[in-house]
Amino acid sequence: MNPTNSTLWPIFLLIIFFSEAEAYDPLDPFGNITIKWDVISWTPDGYVALVTMNNFQMYRHIMSPGWTLGWGWAKKEVIWSMVGAQATEQGDCSKFKGNVPHCCKRNPIVVDLLPGVPYNQQIANCCKGGVVASWGQDPSSAVSSFQVSVGLAGTSNKTVKLPKNFTLLGPGPGYTCGPAKIVPSTVYLTPDRRRKTQALMTWNVTCTYSQLLVSKHPSCCVSFSSFYNDTITPCPTCSCGCQNKKDCIMSNSNKLKMVGINTPKKDNTPLLQCTHHMCPIRVHWHVKINYKDYWRVKIAVTNFNYRMNYTQWTLVAQHPNLNNVTQVFSFDYKPLVPYQSINDTGMFYGMKFYNDLLMEAGNFGNVQTEVLLKKDKDTFTLKQGWAFPRKIYFNGDECQLPPPDAYPVLPNSAQNNLISFSRNSGTMFLLFVIIFL
């Protein structure tokens, strides 16, 4: 083997490894969105298919304005009709006489229908404006479906050509879709559950998410405080990039009184409150109280975006003591065990119709909870930043944490009086944090 080639070969393998591992999420290693096409009947010039989008991600959902799905036809197919979704453009259908297809584009773009459309345009799991819950939060709402009638296509499983070049926006970039692959046909149960039927042909498309495809900067940051130290560790400066610093608005600015300031723009451009971190979301973790057998943490999530309400938001934390969560106040909580034996990750999310909507920046743009954890006396310590999380995710994106050397330090003089001190000062100090930070 050529020495030069021998030297470059390991580098080539590393490039392949990191390019394929780019979308890998260590806290949700099996998370993906699977798009399944079931051919349920043949037509004189094609087929009718039921397309189902399953969100198997534990804590990353698709929020308003919803998903957008695209693909390229392998031949000269057209879409005769759709139920539960629609193509955004019809394209050039001038060659058709009489019946005109719903879409003649070679690369159709499809979106979900809005709620409230007539029943004859609906099927099960459609018409939610493209909003799809995460699997860990609500499996029953983690699915979206539509039906499509395809023409000028094959009329058997030997002549049908699979669509290619699938794209998924959810609602923005971040997803990469693999090629369509033929899989065993889906089996259905009749309503009386006494008979099984199956699709005539089935293929799957798997889409995975990478935060790097969205932005080179994080979309959220984390700050810390504790009862045992007056120091507040803020989000790092320019955590989310400061390229939009000139477009931000001070919280006391007269611009906030302008009509339409809180109206979302078509391109989803944010309008942020001016901060040193320039993040739309800040998560604050406060070590509040140290009891004899328990300790308590307060978590506050603040929205600094004047043009975004976060629906069905999720917050994921990784900390070794999450295996002993005793009680969570005002949030729903679910442990995540991606590696079976390691229970150090948990998902927090809002209670339905109570605080599952994180309002835009302003007086109501925050949500808070407290978490009571039981101590494992063999591992628990307040030294060296152990009480702070290892990772924080908001809506599936990893947040920027402060550098370890900036964490609140445990004073040597407080070692003996730590428990009594925390009981007396924890509440008042946290009030200072929430109001003034």
UniProtKB/TrEMBL annotation:
Signal peptide from the UniProt entry: 1-23
Subcellular location: Cell membrane
Family under the similarity heading: Belongs to the COBRA family.
Protein name: COBRA-like protein
GO cellular component labels: plasma membrane; side of membrane
UniProt organism field: Penstemon smallii
Keywords on record: Glycoprotein, GPI-anchor, Lipoprotein, Membrane, Signal
UniProt entry tagged with the keyword Glycoprotein: yes
Domain COBRA C-terminal positions: 219-408
A Pfam family the protein falls into: COB_C
Membrane protein topology class: Lipid-anchor; GPI-anchor
UniProt-listed InterPro entries: COB_C, COBRA_pln
